[in-house]
Amino acid sequence: MSETRNSILTKLRKTRDAHPLTPPASDFAPIEAKQWAEEERLPRIRRLMEAVHTEFLDATEADWPAVLREFLAHEGVGSLIYAPATDTGKRLVEGWDASSTALIPYDRPLEDLKPRLFDTIEAGLTTTRGAIAETGSLILWPTAEEPRTLSLVPHIHIALLRADALYDTFLQAMRDQGWAQAMPTNVLLVSGPSKTADIEQTLAYGVHGPKRLVVLVVHP
Amino acid sequence: MDGNAPDFAAASRAALADPQLRGNFRRAMDGLMSKRAAQFSDAGEWHGVRALAASVRLRALSKLPELLETLEETCTRNGITVHWAATTDEANAIALDILHKTNAKLVVKGKSMVTEEMHLNAVLEKNGIEVLESDLGEYIVQLDGTMPSHIIMPAIHLNTKQIAHLFKRKIKDAESREDAAYLTDLARRVLRAKFQAADVGMSGVNAAVAETGTLCLIENEGNGRMCTTVPPVHIAFMGLEKVVEKLEDVPPVISLLPRSATGQPITTYVNMISGPRKPGEKDGPREVHLIILDNGRSSIYADPELRDTLRCIRCGACMNHCPVYTKVGGHAYEAPYPGPIGKILVPQIEGLEKRGAMPHACTMCNACVEICPVKIPIVEIMGRLRVEAVKPSGAVKDGGAKASRTEAMVWSGWAAMNASPTAYRVATLAMSKLGNAAPSSLPMLKEWTNVRTKPRFASRTLHDLARAKGVPDV
């Protein structure tokens, strides 16, 4: 196949050199100009995400596990899968025993969890690396400890968002966090629960990914 | 479609006679146009981001061979296996080879227009591999045994009632309910079982980042994430033009694509993949393959004017705004890419012999050019292809395929008549006196008068009238 590769590249190079193209300069100013005052970012994110059926819970560093516990009990959610090796996971389990929701640690490869993950586990908890005001999007940064299927397979995805980690734009988040220097296996922007309008443009939620997205906002 | 040459005129006549189809498209396109317009209510923002996105695409094209090499290098470093295919046959062979090596029996696919171009599903099925489209629209179209009629909304030609009937016929235990929520949930149940069981997941690529070796995919449903996360092997397909230089080039493209396509500020998921599962990670595919397809693109690239075709980011907005597409629908084109972008792309890939009618299915109204987020001069390219079909420069496959001796004679007669005052006077006088006597069934007139009234010649020529008014004749 390297013959194909070389002949494609040779042809592209030869024809480009015969007719070079000078592109206009890329001016990022129109995106950089999109800024919101600090106090406007969270309400904007909330408004945009609620418009596509995202739910919000408010909590503090001290009480978020209790707020979550209460929510899950109220909604009758029987099981929650979480990342046991993360700080968030460790905080979660403290004092959970009294809850009606069973905690399931994501502590083995997907292959050994698939049937339970797809068929019985109702909710998954992940952290976020902030959110984006322009579009109302969560930044998910899956790791070895916090696998990406946590936010994909269970019917309910609960995402922990720290209210002081908000960005104006996708571009700003990418620059401030130095993504280009260290892209992980998978990065995601998530802006709502799974949805489709493929049947006569009628919006329906929960087609393949989570049916519900709950953002647990942790205020400082 | 294969085997028979597509007949756009006949297919569009059939589509025009179908009020159900026309109603489905009219409603959908009206909705999409107004939703898009609402997203770009700030004209300054639209112009600024649009110029930026166009510059991103042009910069990528200006360095295309170098960026493809860098992409190969960074992807390989990330553990992605890169394959190159000159033709769709080669790309199908590469995919089959990977499937055979992994002993795959079941494939789940996210939406990929390149695989439509390859007719991959038919190839896989012929080789005994079950392949399931998982984008809801694609799934509907696959169950129906047809092709997508829109690149973003594949089943836009069907209404809820038609889809409910289809599901009732094809899915076990389906109830007969004309309810989008019920139908969506039904598809969820069928496909979730398949995601779990699939040996290989396939996807397209919206942008591939040379700098970091990252494949970007955007979607609303989560099926793209399923296909690229759950099965042990992921194969991604991209046309060779889909590369961008830097990671920072992704936000401008992602900013315009969903807003132009469906009028939403962003898709539910923006999925950036930079490799297979690493040691210690608990999920994600163990192998990721990237198949880079040429299929005529390097020839399009060779011509400095036609090259602009390759800026496209496949948002489909040109279809939504095309008066021809809206009336005849996507199937009339019998091509993987319908509408304005299809009318310039498909003839260049498949040749003007087979696709010479496509560049003529255009009123040159320029609506597509006005809303194109990367400023492709679609109408200029359309004009160029019409010329290539009769006066070939050698730049387009099967150039000259539509050349006609009669047409050439008519035009040289017309040129001669206009070049000589005497010939002009004689000809116009003859037309004003005898033109109305010509029957509308004359061979060349018939094409026009079949569907239109024959125009009446004025009894006096313009020159004659001007002279009578005292204008000195020239």
How does this model look, in words?
The complex is a heterodimer of chains A (220) and B (474). Chain A is an alpha/beta fold. Chain A has a single domain, classed as Rossmann fold (3-Layer(aba) Sandwich). Helix content of chain A is 30%, strand content 23%. A 6-stranded parallel β-sheet of chain A has the order 1-12-7-4-2-3, with helices on both faces. In chain A, strands 8-5-6-9 form a 4-stranded mixed β-sheet. Chain A has a two-stranded antiparallel sheet with strand order 10-11. Chain A starts with a helix and ends with a strand. Chain B folds into 3 domains: 1-39 and 307-403, Fumarate Reductase Iron-sulfur Protein, Chain B, domain 2, CATH 1.10.1060; 60-295, 3-Layer(aba) Sandwich (Rossmann fold); 405-468, no CATH class. Chain B has helices spanning 8-16, 19-39, 43-62, 64-78, 88-101, 113-118, 120-126, 136-144, 160-170, 180-197, 223-229, 250-262, 297-302, 317-320, 323-328, 339-350, 352-355, 367-371, 378-390, 405-419, 421-434, 443-449, 462-468, and strands at 80-85, 106-109, 130-133, 200-203, 207-209, 214-219, 233-239, 243-244, 269-273, 287-293. In chain B, helix 2 (19-39) crosses helix 12 (250-262), helix 16 (339-350) runs parallel beside helix 19 and helix 20 (405-419) crosses helix 21. Chain B is globular. Strand 9 of chain A pairs antiparallel with strand 9 of chain B, so a sheet runs across the interface. Chain A: Residues 1-27 are annotated as: Disordered.
